[in-house]
């Protein structure tokens, strides 16, 4: 279980997170929604230690994330980045097996390749793709490779940062289904940030809405449509009129 | 003129000084962190060899061409200058000493700065803006160890070798002009060169090369790691890396020359 307690983070005079309190239950898929620039990615990066929060406390299974061995902590996580973040200089299989080719989880090269090909197959890519380079792949294929890399070391917790951004609706649907299937079969704890409502409905067990630097609403996906919170209602229905200010 | 108007230039000077001090502090911390990782595992040998190939082997043509033409031009200049007081015979020795002590390391360092610091800054900067550096961290790989240490180590080891090769090519450039244009006897030219050079003439140039290599890779990595967002951010990082590396090479060259040769 990941617990965020009063997390704050500012960039210069811009206060992005103003005291975020959130619990991400083990084995469930939590989706954070919110407009662009509300700090969803910052929140995710604070948990991973990629950005240092100004205040507050983040714990994983009751232990402060700053305590203990950092490599062991990170080994529990997998992450799919918004743009894939694949390494240009490595082939697809080397990207997928990156963690298996170095560090504590290092395996023989042949075994690492075998695992990479298996993970590629799991995300719907044929073994032929393994020796291509990221620049030779379409956006959808890059996302799948990113997903294969995120699950390669079978992490307990997987983060998805805008998994469907930039994809056509059909490919977005495919990625959503894959995420749902993989998270369910691995029994992993998932945390996704998105503003794509079709993703939310496909992936989420629980939903939390981030607005003005705080969690505005959170609850099970089944209760999202019924909530009377005007902010949530405006956001999920994509209305221009409402309490959330929009620039025109 | 009121007090506020008078204090404005002072305030601007103060801000610039503080910014310079802050940048120097950040760079010092970066260098300290790089050095602290040099001796601690894990070591990424593949990255190190790739960096050696890119910084050393692939810089050879540009460093070699620079040395060749510089040595040739130097021989012509020394001949013309020496002729004013009937000292044309110093061409081989002065060309050699000029190449190995100064022009070989400095021009080699500057050419490597132009080629390598820019490429490192652009590569790491692009990795930063496309979240590849964040991805490295989430894959339990320290970006400093994986990206910076191999490049800095490779540059520190390879640039002296480039300088050594450049010295030889530069002296050969002088020899070609001396023999074919200025009428020197080939064997005499080479003997004069060999007899005149001392070990420390060459050694000091190689030490300078190591220092310049360290500067080039450090500046490339530092500016890449601190790149701003988007294409403009990466472009600015690349430009800053080349400018900073070039200026630092020239400044370090003066300091090292003072240290090695001041009476």
UniProtKB/TrEMBL annotation, chain A:
Q: Which UniProt keywords apply?
A: ATP-binding, Nucleotide-binding, Transport
Molecular function (GO) terms for this protein are: ATP binding
Q: Which InterPro entries match?
A: AAA+_ATPase (IPR003593), ABC_transporter-like_ATP-bd (IPR003439), ABC_transporter-like_CS (IPR017871), P-loop_NTPase (IPR027417)
Annotated ABC transporter domain residues: 2-237
UniProt xrefs under PROSITE patterns: ABC_TRANSPORTER_1 (PS00211), ABC_TRANSPORTER_2 (PS50893)
**What is the protein name given in its UniProt record?**
ABC transporter ATP-binding protein
UniProtKB/TrEMBL annotation, chain B:
How is it placed in the membrane, per its record?
Multi-pass membrane protein
Q: Can you name this protein? A: ABC transporter permease
Is-annotated flag, keyword Protein biosynthesis? no
Q: Name the predominant localization.
A: membrane
- UniProt superkingdom: Bacteria
* Residues annotated as transmembrane: 48-76, 152-177, 206-225, 237-256
Per its UniProt record, what InterPro entries does this chain match? ABC_MlaE_roteobac (IPR003453), Permease_MalE (IPR030802)
Keywords tagged on the record: Cell inner membrane, Cell membrane, Membrane, Transmembrane, Transmembrane helix, Transport
Q: Where does this one sit in the cell? A: Cell inner membrane; Membrane
Describe the family membership recorded for this protein in Swiss-Prot or TrEMBL.
Belongs to the MlaE permease family.
> Which species is the source of this protein?
Thioclava sediminum
Q: Does the keyword Transmembrane apply?
A: yes
Q: Outline what the protein does.
A: Could be part of an ABC transporter complex.
